[in-house]
Design a protein that fits this description.
alpha/beta, seven-stranded mixed beta sheet, five-stranded mixed beta sheet, 15 helices, binds nicotinamide-adenine-dinucleotide
């Protein structure tokens, strides 16, 4: 990781791309700081009888295009600056896929694996009590992120409804289906990434059967994208989780990997102990080695900042699809571009999650439930349209795919922010513009 913090890194990239794309400086200035950030201390009565206090954040970054939208992360490394960076990326992401949201994000500094289920529920309800006047169906709509899930969203929605004395399922998305969640939300991020990769492969005439894929982070998003790619004939030659990585040129069966992981709680060292072990010879490698494998497609699907100035010149994949948020640092962008490596950016690749969250919000507000086929076909239409908008700016223009996607997003945000008049309008008309 570089020495700079993740928010400064995100701003550096935003300013550089915004300048190159000719975006109005007032618009970039508007996007260089969050609209509002709430910090809270959440008291939780612990199992042992004592009270612990957890630091929590919620950031409404920019709401020019609609209510702010973004997940809540539970992680010991959460910081205010990380939450702000993630909220900025959400602002861009929602604009890339053209849904009527701004960007937001939340987080709690906690290792949730150390809490009992009751402590976790108290913390989650406490978070919503602290944020109940800051979030809302028309203002800021949270969702799950790393180490939060549908059940936690259900507790939070219930707490919000108790405080406001009304039913308001659209205050939060990613809920359990029985509490107003949408069909297809669990697979949406992986499916959206798959749709982007599929369209890219068509444009570049890549042959799935000759494409070897490495997945860093075999979690929710990583599993679903791997599953769908394998169905099309791609060879998944490496996968990893927080405990380690495995590699086999013969390729792994994705469903067997999931089964092994679910049974043993980890990927490394367990593949061999289950029923499918003998079918595939494989080697154990480190997560760092996985990133540097000679593959065609590398999919970082875990954490921020894993590809940086220090390892960018050792990456051998021709294409990187950013399923995680911010896996490639700004300093690595140029190195990869100069080496001819295409980085399909997070704001496009992982936008399937927020898109189906938007569908959930729409269904809740309409009192409807869409069948799975409808969710999937609407997602496909949104992702294809977003890809095509990015591609029109990318192909043959000598800029990175990230710059192209940011360009699409920034112009949409610019259009909204300047709809009331730009600098030239006000300075040029001296207040006589009404005529
Ligand atoms: P998850 O918790 O389901 O999966 C994360 C996986 O990464 C786990 O398997 C974990 O073991 C693994 N991991 C953790 N540290 C690792 C390391 N050092 N090396 C390799 N693997 C490691 O989370 P998820 O929902 O799949 O999210 C993954 C990424 O995708 C995050 O960056 C998240 O912000 C992003 N994302 C997720 C969604 C969504 O809807 N789930 C939407 C947009 C973006």
């Amino acid at each position: 990781m570089a020495s700079t913090d993740v928010f400064s890194d995100a701003l550096t990239r935003l300013e550089r791309i915004g300048r190159d794309a000719g975006i109005d400086p007032d618009v970039i200035a508007a996007l260089c700081q969050p609209k509002a950030v709430l910090t809270a201390s959440i008291p939780v009565r612990m199992h042992a009888g004592n009270t612990r206090y957890f630091t929590a954040y919620r950031c409404r970054y920019n709401d020019a295009r609609g209510p702010t939208k973004g997940g809540i992360r539970y992680h010991p490394d959460v910081t205010r600056l990380e939450v702000q960076a993630l909220a900025l990326w959400m602002t861009l992401k929602c604009a890339v896929v053209g849904i009527p949201y701004g960007g937001g994000k939340g987080g709690v500094v906690v290792d949730p694996k150390t809490l009992t289920p009751m402590e976790l529920e108290r913390l989650s309800r406490g978070y919503m009590r602290a944020m109940a006047d800051f979030v809302g169906p028309e203002t800021d709509v949270p969702a799950p992120d790393v180490y939060t899930n549908a059940r936690i969203m259900g507790w939070m929605a219930d707490e919000y409804e108790t405080i406001h004395r009304c039913k308001a399922p659209s205050v939060i998305t990613g809920k359990p289906i029985a509490l107003g969640g949408s069909l297809g939300r669990d697979e949406a991020t992986g499916r959206g990434a798959y749709l982007v990769i599929r369209r890219y492969a068509e444009r570049r005439a890549l042959e799935p059967k000759q494409t070897r894929v490495a997945i860093q982070g075999f979690g929710n998003a990583g599993y679903h994208v791997a599953r769908l790619l394998q169905r099309d004939g791609y060879r998944i030659v490496a996968a990893s989780d927080s405990k380690g990585a495995i590699h086999s040129e013969a390729g792994f069966d994705v469903e067997s990997l999931l089964q092994q992981k679910n049974e043993s709680r980890k990927l490394e060292g367990v593949y061999c102990h289950g029923s499918v072990c003998e079918l595939v010879q494989h080697e154990r490698i480190s997560n760092e080695e996985l990133l540097e494998l000679d593959v065609d497609l590398l999919i970082p699907a875990a954490l921020e900042g894993v590809i940086h100035e220090g390892n960018a010149d050792r990456i051998r994949a021709q294409t990187i699809a950013e399923v995680a948020n911010g896996p490639v640092e700004a300093a690595a962008d140029e190195i990869l571009r100069e080496r001819g490596i295409t980085v399909l950016p997070d704001v496009l690749v992982n936008a399937g999650g927020v898109t189906v969250s938007y569908f959930e919000w729409v269904q809740n507000r309409q009192g409807l439930t869409w069948p799975l086929d409808e969710v999937r076909s609407r997602l496909e239409a949104v992702m294809n349209e977003a890809f095509d908008a990015m591609w029109a700016e990318f192909d043959g223009h000598g800029r990175s795919a990230r710059a192209a996607a940011y360009g699409v997003a920034l112009r949409r945000i610019e259009e909204t922010l300047l709809a009331g008049g730009d600098r030239a309008y006000f300075a040029g008309n001296g207040g006589r513009a009404g005529r």
